[in-house]
UniProtKB/TrEMBL annotation:
It holds the Pfam family FCD. This is FadR/GntR family transcriptional regulator. Residues 7-75 form the HTH gntR-type domain. Keywords: DNA-binding, Transcription, Transcription regulation. Transmembrane segments: none annotated. PANTHER family: TRANSCRIPTIONAL REGULATOR, GNTR FAMILY, UXU OPERON TRANSCRIPTIONAL REGULATOR. The keyword Transmembrane helix does not apply. It comes from the Bacteria. It comes from Streptomyces lutosisoli. SMART domains: FCD, HTH_GNTR.
């Protein structure tokens, strides 16, 4: 049996600070209290505080100015989509907004893939679709489904679509166990996704857009019903 990772004091402090920032205890644009005061308030050493600060600076929530202090970054105005995984873990309501983007981007990707996919990419899509039907267990089915969508993005020939697809999946795959509803039955998952792949490989852009929109709406509805 694989040992579970141990949570360190830095992990705990990072989570506490992140929660306090996202809950508005430390508002965007405000400077945090002096390090000694903040360390005493959280009951940690200044060294531990500095390590947690470093992680949150890297995450895009804080910015440190030498000789001035540490300020909460206005992540809502200046942040990027790389913040989404953290925001989803903090507040599940972000899932609804991610799914709205997923519908629009996903349908457009399918349309572009139908127009641009090469012969080898069309063959790859069929192989990846078959892997959905053959996957064992909801998690494996969901991950196989993800690979089909990554391949659709690659088939557009546009690397930005690939990065957008990766970002959206990175946002909710960490909580995918809560969103497994559409993937508990491999055959049903295959049947839902097959019309998208068939439309793309038949090079029918309009049908691909329609099929992808229908697929994304159907799976979204099942996922959200599961969350409810």
């Amino acid at each position: 049996m694989e040992a579970l990772p141990r949570e360190t004091i830095v992990d705990v402090l990072e989570d506490r600070l992140r929660t306090d920032i996202l809950n508005g205890r430390h508002p965007a644009g405000s400077y945090l209290p002096p390090e000694r005061q903040l360390a005493d308030g959280y009951g940690v050493t200044r060294t531990t505080l500095k390590h947690a600060f470093g992680r949150l600076v890297q995450a895009g929530l804080l910015e440190t100015r030498h000789g001035v202090g540490t300020r909460v970054r206005d992540y809502a105005r200046l942040g990027g989509a790389d913040l989404l995984p953290m925001l989803v873990r903090h507040d599940a309501k972000w899932i609804h907004e991610i799914f709205e983007v997923r519908r629009g981007v996903g349908a457009l990707i399918a349309e572009r893939a139908a127009a641009r996919a090469t012969r080898s990419q069309r063959a790859e899509l069929h192989a990846l679709l078959e892997a959905v039907r053959e996957a064992d267990g909801a998690d494996a089915v969901q991950l196989a489904d993800v690979e089909v969508h990554r391949a659709l993005a690659r088939a557009t020939g546009n690397r930005v679509y690939v990065l957008l697809t990766n970002t959206l999946f990175n946002a909710y795959l960490p909580v995918r166990s809560l969103l497994k509803g559409p993937f508990t039955d491999p055959a049903a998952a295959y049947e839902r996704l097959a019309p998208v792949v068939e439309a793309v490989t038949s090079q029918d852009a309009r049908l691909a857009h329609t099929a992808a929109d229908a697929y994304l709406r159907a799976t979204e509805r099942i996922m959200l019903d599961g969350l409810a």
